[in-house]
Amino acid sequence: MPTHHRALSALATTALLSSGLALGTAGAAEAAPAQPATVVRTQSADGLGDLIALVTNPVLNLLGGVPGVGQAVSVTEPVVDNLLGVLDLDIVWLCDGNEIPGSQGFWTFVPTEAQAGCQLAAKTIATVLGVPISGITSVVEIPLQNLPGAVKSPVATKAVAVPATAKVGTLVAATPPVWDENATDVVTTYQWLRAGAPIAGATTATYTPTAEDLGKALSVRATGTRDKAPEPTVSTSSAVTVAQGDAPTATVQPAVQGVAEVGETLAVRPPTWSGTGTTANTYQWLRDGQPIAGATTATYVVTAADAGRALSARVTGTRTGYAAGTATTAPVTVGATEPLTATVPPSIAGPAVVGQTLTASPGTWNAPGATFTYVWRRDGITIPGATSPTYLTQVADIGRTLSVVVTATAAGFTEASETSRAVSIARLSSTTAASLTSRTVRKGTKATLRIALQAAGKAQTGQVEVHDGQRLLKTVSVAGQRTIKLPRLGVGKHRIRVAYVGSRTTAPSASKVLVLKVVKKK
């Protein structure tokens, strides 16, 4: 027992004993307990201590086994006789720490609907010789669901849902939640959420995403309310990321306005786009369906390159939050202008030999300000990459014909092309040289012959024929230089000549005639 309680017990005991006070059986309480109260019968100091312990540490008894509306609870009431005005004893019941009106003095208490949801406790108070002591029981909660005939909050047996996809400008409809397996007495309200935050004014079952929602997580919160239920129930859908809206379409097509002639200015009448909101237009002019470099404004000045061609304009409409829409005008054909003609045709200058540079002359045209482009051809077939006024001949050109196509353009004229006269590319020239180590040999001795073969100033490999007059002595292969033995020749003078037979890329050549004298043996 706490020290102040022991002191109080001793003081009270002294006073009670001196007054001849005894503890016994009391009369019936104002609110009869559901079970007999414990009787404290003692005249000792320890007995008074038990009494004080009952007051300072009261115990709450659940007479019905479980707390609830209509289920009685009680606190053990000390029974005291002959107090002689020395001791006052009382009790009051508390709901959430506040006194319940009309509950004072009742040691047994039956909660009503007014206490549903309360944290229920009892406070005992005793005054001994003017000294107050008190205690509070443990707390029990009186549940709401135990109210006889209570209305329950809805339960979402199937959550509210949104479609798997959402786009700016396209209405999204929520699939309502299912309350208490299809209950009909629940009122459902909605609140759409952007990244978890409420969207102002979006409080119906449908919502049309705006540009502000693009790329954000969109969800909906459904609240179910039942009349007289203690509180509403909330169901929130999973979120869907809002994608770009569908591209606008042209309800009125764009059109080209103006005179389609060289030097004139054309303009685009912009389209009327479907949907709402501001749409920005960008432009691209087309020649025969292909983009014209740099022509990206709403107006276009027709050039000579457009003569006889079809011009149109592609308009692209962009709107925040939506994919871009496109619309193309109907084409207009530009009137033909004076044709360009060459008064002096193009020509090719330079040595028509492999490894040499040829230069194209554009010729003379009837437009003094004409500009020219070049395309070289081999046997009438375009040579890839050969588009400059000069061309370095290649091995592949040997034995072939080369020409150049010159295309002229000029403001106010129709573009035209002319082809030069073709030139044939000759083979590389070669030189064949021969020398005898001795111009006189005796009969039966083989003469020694040195041969040197070159093409375009470099050593050449190929076959050469060695002749004695009109007679072929032998055929040999030479790789730049070679020394050979001639067959044994008869006595007399012999005219030795070496001839390179040539190749597809290199022309043949022959040496000077060498005179070889064969004399008799001594």
From TrEMBL:
It comes from the Bacteria. Residues 437-518 form the Bacterial Ig-like domain. Pfam families: Big_3_5. Gene3D superfamilies: 2.60.40.2700, Immunoglobulins. Residues 1-31 form the signal peptide. Keywords: Signal. This is Ig-like domain repeat protein.
